[in-house]
């Protein structure tokens, strides 16, 4: 048995902890935040995800798929909202049965943390600040001061802004590039109307507007979380709408069905933060005792709805690599990176390409003639 540290108790880290425990490994999971199950989510950062078969396959292997799906809403196609004219439903599969599942990232994380907590040791409010990849020495900042500890194997599952990756770069073993889009995202909320969904909950709603767009995914409380993907600068930028009347006029002209659906439009728009969107690439993903996984290794833009699905699939591939090396942790990370890098680069490129598709091409006549879109 190895002493394994997983840094980051988000989606990839908490799922990885469950897989490692299932293999009988002794695991400590370190998370920067205090226990998120005890707190309220940050305003404008609720993020609901489209969970697809790729991610469900990973959850199934630790018997969590049914529990997660109980909190999810199936979306069997996308509903296009033009500036003028009829709504246009485009099914995701020829038989109209295949679906992607809308789920809150927070709720998904909570299910995974519950599962991880029953099998591994979790230390919340531990922010990794230093790491020596050769010795496995780690330093964490905690409310009670600095904690110095170590592990035989360390996984960096600490997301797009990974401190573990930062330490590999600092030690001169990894190189990274961060490509930010000149676009950001902002959330709005469509509350229930008379206790019911205000839009069809069986679809992922898209307002394609050429150079920008809005999407909306349903939530179990019958609200929708909308996300605006708009430029950070130039025409149509978030900052260009600086007064309540400018916000109201712009939505009335460009998203005319939205103001009646979002009674808190001006407050949401003015108070919710603008998030960054970018692609992280780095190489190698591993050095000494350390291996990166999930967004820490390969964060992508969200337009294919595959970041979390891909992070979950990483865990499955890593587990298969462990099997193929007969449980040898010294060999597993290299095999993992060799098996996985090409696929993650491909999804990074597809995710960028899908932004053009969603904000522009979905409203073209070819889709109205019945082209089907497959999501896996
Ligand atoms: P994270 O979920 O970011 O988890 C990292 C964890 O590490 C966090 O808990 C963090 O607190 C912790 N941490 C950070 N630093 C430290 C530190 N120094 N020490 C200890 N802990 C630390 N994906 C999809 O599959 N489908 C979608 O539809 C989708 N939509 C998205 C929409 C938006 C607007 C965005 C922004 C993302 C979307 N994604 C989607 C992507 C998805 O959210 C990420 O790919 C996924 O969360 C990655 O999981 P992760 O565990 O690698 O990283």
TrEMBL record:
Belongs to the aromatic-ring hydroxylase family. KMO subfamily. Catalyzes the hydroxylation of L-kynurenine (L-Kyn) to form 3-hydroxy-L-kynurenine (L-3OHKyn). Required for synthesis of quinolinic acid. Its EC number is 1.14.13.9. It comes from Amycolatopsis pigmentata. Pathway: Cofactor biosynthesis; NAD(+) biosynthesis; quinolinate from L-kynurenine: step 1/3. Residues 3-318 form the FAD-binding domain. Its cofactor is FAD. It holds the Pfam family FAD_binding_3. It catalyses: L-kynurenine + NADPH + O2 + H(+) = 3-hydroxy-L-kynurenine + NADP(+) + H2O. Keywords: FAD, Flavoprotein, Monooxygenase, NADP, Oxidoreductase, Pyridine nucleotide biosynthesis. This is Kynurenine 3-monooxygenase. The gene is kmo. SUPFAM superfamilies: FAD/NAD(P)-binding domain (SSF51905). It comes from the Bacteria.
């Amino acid at each position: 048995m190895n002493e394994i540290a997983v840094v980051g108790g988000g989606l990839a880290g908490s799922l990885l902890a469950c897989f490692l425990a299932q293999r009988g490994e002794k695991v400590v999971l370190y998370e920067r935040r205090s226990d998120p199950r005890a707190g309220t989510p940050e305003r404008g950062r609720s993020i609901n995800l489209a969970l697809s078969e790729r991610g469900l396959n990973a959850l199934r292997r630790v018997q969590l798929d049914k529990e997660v799906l109980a909190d999810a809403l199936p979306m069997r196609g996308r509903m296009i909202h033009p500036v003028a004219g009829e709504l246009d439903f485009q099914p995701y599969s020829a038989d109209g049965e295949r679906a992607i599942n809308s789920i809150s990232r927070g709720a998904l994380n909570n299910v995974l943390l519950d599962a991880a907590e029953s099998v591994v040791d979790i230390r919340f409010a531990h922010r990794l600040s230093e790491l020596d990849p050769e010795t496995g020495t780690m330093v964490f900042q905690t409310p009670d001061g600095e904690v110095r500890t170590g592990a035989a194997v360390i996984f960096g599952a600490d997301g797009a802004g990974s401190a573990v990756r930062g330490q590999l770069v600092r030690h001169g073993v990894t190189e990274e590039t961060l490509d930010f889009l000149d676009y950001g995202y902002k959330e709005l909320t469509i509350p229930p109307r008379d206790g019911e969904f205000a839009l069809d909950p069986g679809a992922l709603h898209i307002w394609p507007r050429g150079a920008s767009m809005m999407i909306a995914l349903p939530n179990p409380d019958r609200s929708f979380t909308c996300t605006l993907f708009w430029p950070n600068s130039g025409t149509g930028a978030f900052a260009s709408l600086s007064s309540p009347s400018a916000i109201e006029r712009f939505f009335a002209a460009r998203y005319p069905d939205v103001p009646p659906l979002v009674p808190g439009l001006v407050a949401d728009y003015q108070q919710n933060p603008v998030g960054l969107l970018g692609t992280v690439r780095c190489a190698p993903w591993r050095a000494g005792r350390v291996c990166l996984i999930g967004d820490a290794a390969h964060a992508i833009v969200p337009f294919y709805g595959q970041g979390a699905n891909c992070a979950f699939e990483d865990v499955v591939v890593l587990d298969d690599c462990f099997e193929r090396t007969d449980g040898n942790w010294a060999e597993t990370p290299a095999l993992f990176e060799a098996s996985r890098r090409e696929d993650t680069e491909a999804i990074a490129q597809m995710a960028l390409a899908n932004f053009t598709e969603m904000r522009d091409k979905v409203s073209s006549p070819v889709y109205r003639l019945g082209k089907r879109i497959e999501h896996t």
